[in-house]
Amino acid sequence: MVEKQDYPQLELFTQDSNSQHYKPRPVKDPVFLRIRKYEKVILLIMVLALTSIISFSIGVENGKRVILTENNSGTAESYTVQVAAFKNKGLALRQAQLLTQSGMAPMVFAKGSYIILCVGKFSNQESAQPLLIQLQRTYAGCRIRRL
Q1: With the C-alpha atoms ordered 80, 81, 84, 90, is the resulting torsion angle positive or negative?
Q2: Which class would CATH give 79-146?
Q3: CB–CB of 114/86 below 8 Å?
Q4: What does the pLDDT read at residue 37?
Q5: Smallest Cα–Cα separation from 124: which of 145, 94, 142, 100?
Q6: CA distances for 23 relative to 8, 29, 34, 100, 112, angstroms
Q7: Helix, strand, or coil here: 121?
Q8: What is the pTM of this model?
Q9: Could you tell me the residue ranges of all domains in the chain?
Q10: DSSP label at 140?
Q11: pLDDT of residue 21
Q12: What residues of the chain score a pLDDT lower than 50?
């Protein structure tokens, strides 16, 4: 025989009054109401973090496109002759003074941990070729590069 229990047992299935078959009990509460309060907070934080990451990555991709279009449609003077690369800024400035005294317009800028010394601004590589040949007599490692 079945003994009577002191505590109520929750039923997952209810017995159909017309037949002896059991049918699933219908869920009355929506899913969002069955989630506990702290779980809602955790889900909200996860959604905000995911949204932040996605919007940041979209912004980075848009920024890359803007930079690429600015570089491609930039100035007509996009080539120069790189004379040398120095680790010491003083040496680079001294060589820039020597080039200035010889009538050229040098540019000195930092690239990573090096100081790059360049001369001239040209619209294409062919127009920079004569200056490259002239500078290779003094500076053996000259090359034409983009600005």
Answers
A1: negative
A2: alpha beta
A3: yes
A4: 83
A5: 145
A6: 20, 18, 22, 94, 72
A7: strand
A8: 0.48
A9: 11-74, 79-146
A10: T
A11: 62
A12: 73-74
